[in-house]
Design brief:
The complex is a heterodimer. By secondary structure, chain A is of the alpha+beta class. Chain A is built from 14 helices and 20 strands. Classes of the chains: A alpha+beta, B alpha+beta. Bound molecules: flavin-adenine dinucleotide.
Chain lengths: 473, 86
């Protein structure tokens, strides 16, 4: 079932480059690399199946594959963990999927200059297991921590749960090697030195290749930041009787100036209703728990202990009630791995149906969160009025700044979708809702995406509007 | 080896928590079976399997704490040490 472009001679050439064990043209290898967890028109699966999958093991092999694809004009899509939420790894026009999972080696640990050099197919959890013996960690911590990979983190310019303390992917990747669409290999960083964090020489190319979603090349090696393994972790969850108080408290906690503060998250009333419905920790909470704010700190014990006392005081003074150790510690630990999210939702009559989780994200300034929240929920409510297969799972707003957790927030609305029931009409309505959600983010001076990227049907149409408007009044 | 025990198979009868949730084991909540009728059927689960899953979950969370830091500071203890201003 290959397209006319990927002919047998092309497959023979790919085998000559990557070896016979690393080229897959069988149906299951291809069908399994057609989608990512973003909502997917499952009724049109066949439109996105790649023609062939290769798993190279070196930068030279990647370069040869890209050159071959160029010669034959075949589309190429890099794929890492396949957890991206904006379709970047979906082969929209078939072609070759370059799956980087076999490029998963640690090439060097440099404890003097505090770097680790890796291939792009390594996962952060596995990397940190290896780094533990040296007393250091690589602190890029998405909620997909156990399953996303370094290549995909660079491809999306990812956002980290603890970025308020340690920075996000773009701050933690010091430099990297990338195979350009021509097949040439270059290094990009801040200046020329591979382990240099800050330079004023020439143009800063690193940011151009951050979050390019595989459109500008394929990363084949990266030099990453190392930080001391934290001695202490502290998590505090506070409850509030209403949104207004919780939102103000979020602002106060985020602006506390506590250096070990890694993040502050505000869960709104819809999120609480959803959690109260299906999450063990929240079902027993009394009715006056309407919103929750979660905080986490990392660092040396000498810093975290006094900081935690101050944080508890601020939470209380701004109207929060500490929810206790069990929920604070347990829920925080579960945030590193949100694949545990329940995979069912409800119809309006309460009946359980299979639903997959999806979230729309944006960067929104703190002052605009209440308005954006109202408008986003209205959009999803209208969608649910028309199609029973959409279920509003609530919103959260999470500190978004690197090293300084204040100012703007990764803002997400979670929507359950009964994908098996999707048809063209429901899919079109979903795409329209996505466009409306993105338009609200822009209207309030935000950005369409804080971490996932903005290249799916619907939202992608508005990217020129967002970027074209920058700098105008 | 103890072998088959009926009590290890059969979950206790459910107790209603609210209009959408029932409970058979401490800290373990279940969707009201009446809400799992039309599109998704509830599975019959042996009691030992529910306990195994819950224990694994706790183990996973403990593993995660240990993965990220040497120790976890307790908010409850901090508040006992120093009341946060009543
Ligand atoms: C449960 C869950 C929770 C999530 N939480 C977060 C979160 O907290 N923060 C966050 O940022 N994201 C989150 N995401 C989204 C996703 O995990 C991230 O976008 C992640 O960075 C994708 O990594 P991946 O390895 O799965 O990449 P993929 O999905 O395989 O690829 C992502 C993009 O990068 C490109 N790419 C892959 N490899 C390379 C390479 N070697 N060179 C160049 N481009 C490449 C792909 O073409 C694609 O465009 C979450 C997703 C899920 C499912």
């Amino acid at each position: 079932m290959t397209s006319i472009l990927v002919t047998d001679p092309v497959i023979d050439e790919l085998v000559a480059i990557c070896g016979p064990d690393n080229v897959f043209a069988d149906k299951s290898s291809r069908v399994n690399r057609a989608r990512v967890p973003a909502p997917f028109p499952v009724h049109r699966w066949a439109e996105h199946v790649p023609d062939v999958v290769v798993l190279p093991t070196s930068a030279e092999q990647v370069s040869e594959v890209v050159k071959l694809a160029n010669r034959h004009r075949i589309p190429v899509v890099p794929r890492a963990g396949g957890t991206g939420l904006t379709d970047g790894a979906v082969p929209l026009r078939h072609g070759i999927v370059v799956d980087v999972k076999l490029m998963n080696k640690i090439l060097e640990v440099d404890l003097d200059d505090r770097t680790v050099t890796v291939q792009p197919g390594i996962n952060m959890l596995k990397l940190n297991e290896e780094l533990r013996q040296y007393g250091v960690i690589y602190p890029d911590d998405p909620a997909s921590y156990p399953c996303s990979l370094v290549g995909g983190r660079i491809g999306t310019s990812g956002w980290s749960l603890i970025g308020g303390r340690y920075g996000h992917t773009r701050d933690l990747v010091i430099s990297f090697q990338i195979v350009l669409p021509t097949g040439e290999l270059i290094w990009v960083g801040d200046g020329g030195g591979r382990k240099v964090r800050k330079s004023s020489t020439g143009y800063q190319l690193k940011q151009l290749f951050m979050g390019h979603q595989g459109t500008l090349g394929i990363v084949t090696e990266a030099v990453l930041e190392l930080v001391p393994r934290p001695e202490a972790e502290f998590a505090a969850f506070f409850s509030y009787p209403d949104y207004e108080t919780a939102w103000r408290s979020t602002g106060a906690l985020a602006k506390s100036g506590l250096a070990t503060l890694a993040g502050v998250v505000l869960f709104d009333e819809w999120k609480l209703d959803y959690l109260r419905r299906d999450d063990e920790a929240y079902i027993p909470q009394p009715d006056d728990v309407r919103c929750v704010v979660a905080t986490a700190m990392y660092g040396t014990t000498d810093e975290v202990r006094p900081g935690a006392k101050r944080l508890l005081r601020i939470g209380k003074e701004t109207g929060g009630a500490y929810l206790g150790d069990e929920i604070s510690q347990g829920d925080w630990a579960s945030r590193h791995d949100r694949y545990a999210t329940p995979l069912h939702g409800r119809l309006r009559d309460g009946q359980v149906v299979p639903m997959s989780w999806h979230c729309e994200d944006a960067s929104i300034n703190w002052s605009k969160l209440p308005q954006v929240r109202r408008e986003w929920h209205d959009i999803v409510a209208r969608l649910g009025d028309r199609f029973r297969i959409f279920d509003d799972w609530g919103m959260f707003a999470y500190t978004n700044g690197a090293f300084k957790p204040w100012g703007d927030y990764l803002t997400e609305i979670d929507v359950g979708i009964w994908e098996q029931e999707l048809d063209d009409a429901a899919w079109d309505a979903w795409v329209t809702a996505k466009r409306d959600i993105a338009a609200v983010a822009i209207a309030y001076g935000g950005s369409i995406s804080a971490c996932h990227g903005a290249c799916r049907e619907g939202e992608v149409d508005l990217v020129p509007e967002e970027l074209g408007g920058a700098g105008t009044s | 080896m103890i072998g088959f025990r009926y009590s290890a198979q059969r979950p206790p009868d459910p107790r209603r928590i609210n209009d959408a949730v029932v409970q058979r084991f401490d800290h373990v909540y279940e969707v009201d079976p009446a809400l799992m009728r039309d599109h998704v059927r509830q599975h019959d689960f042996p009691a030992w399997d529910t306990r195994r899953i819950v224990d694994s979950r706790w183990e996973h969370l403990a593993w995660m704490h240990d993965h990220w830091a040497d120790s976890v500071i307790s908010g409850e203890e901090l508040m006992e040490d120093e009341p946060t201003g009543e």
